[in-house]
Design a protein that fits this description.
mainly alpha
């Protein structure tokens, strides 16, 4: 390809593309709004503590129930070895018990660590929402009264 052909192709491509910026958003309404419920774009993106708080509550409930289940499982097996000496399945039963106690303990410990982290996310996200909202409210928009 000759240099002139290359320059010609670049010129044709440049003619097809404008230098105008286009944002992927809702079409602008009167006054530059994005068509939100209050004319300022509100209602498009919302955050709620609910899912994070519910997840933290679920983790706490699961922590409590696995701890209780581990205790009940251990007490249910108390005395199993008495009167069962020589029974071949006794060793297997004890190994299954130990395995389940480890598993339930791991779930309990994981939920114990996870619950506070989920609560922290809900709190932090709420703080971020408040700061972002305050920053957005401080922007002066032509034709819009503060607090709208």
């Amino acid at each position: 390809m000759a240099w002139e052909e290359w320059e010609q192709l670049k010129a044709v491509a440049a003619e097809r593309h404008t230098t105008q910026m286009q944002l992927n958003q809702l079409p602008a309404g009167p006054g530059g709004s994005t068509g939100g419920t209050d004319g300022g774009g509100a209602g498009i993106l919302k955050h709620s503590h609910g899912p994070w708080t519910r997840a933290a509550g679920t983790a706490d409930d699961l922590r409590t129930s696995t701890g209780r289940s581990k205790t009940e499982l251990s007490s249910a097996h108390a005395g199993v070895g008495d009167g069962s000496v020589g029974l071949a399945s006794l060793g297997v039963l004890k190994s299954v018990l130990a395995s389940w106690e480890r598993r339930l303990g791991a779930v309990r410990d994981e939920c114990d660590a996870l619950g506070p982290k989920l609560c922290r996310v809900a709190r932090d996200m709420g703080e971020v929402d408040v700061k972002v909202g305050a920053n957005a409210d401080s922007v002066k928009v032509a034709g819009r009264v503060k607090g709208e």
